[in-house]
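ok posting inputs for the zinc ion job
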Amino acid sequence: MEIRKDVISLDSGKPGKITTIVAGIHGNEICGMKAFAKLIPNIKIIAGKVNFVYGNLRAIEKNVREIDVNLNRLFRPDDELTETEKSSYEYSRSQKLKKLFDQSDALLDIHSSRNENSVPFAIVAKQSFDIAQKMPFKIKSSGWDIVEPGGTDDYMNRQNKINICAECGYNLDPESIKRAQDIIKIFLKLMGNIDEDIKLYNGEQKLIHAYYIYHTKTNNFKLNKKFKDFEFIKKDTLIGIDGEEKIVASEDSYIIFALNKNQIGVEAFILGKKCLSEEK
Ligand SMILES: [Zn+2]
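and the output
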């Protein structure tokens, strides 16, 4: 996809929140960008300003997830980054995006998945639970800024600003693009930027707290089976084999983003648990 301008700002000229919506932090997650193409020509901003932002420009142009490193791990202080990260193309992008996020009151980051069975969900922290509750997600999930620091969510959480990272479902499903559009509109409506007649979600929404991430110890991590995102697994379930070592669940959990890996030291799966209260 060719991008002519990396930031499209629509300013109402009236007081109100500065809201930033970003798509393509992972370049091949086209869902958010398709939603932008449908929304931007028709949207009317009545208060504040809205920035529509294309995240990883070069990766979007090449339709790949990233050029050098994962852009969504670079939104951390410089002294927490490796030399490889700091010399990457993505680092220069993160510097520009950080400035934009600093000027924003709220951020919505749109992602989608290459996995056909992916479950749409929202990554959120406490200050954004109320907003997420009105979006069409059956699951919201907290704790990601701890298990995967350096995401856009982590960056905004450190400033205690409203932010949601929306995982919209399978990339090639038209439903995902529709969902992304609805989510963007709901977010802008709740931020007061638009005044469209939009149905807010009022169904059930489970809170799953991500508490553990597994990094591979060898270059041969094989899952015991394919796991659906948020599939429930009992304590002691065999998740996979890392080299020779059996990796099992230490407690009853929901497993998320589980993938076979042939590299050492990379993220292989995340475990979450259900929270009954919304204290986390
Ligand atoms: Zn993504």
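notes: The pocket of zinc ion is lined by residues 26, 29, 111 (CB under 6 Å). The first strand starts at residue 7 and ends at 11.
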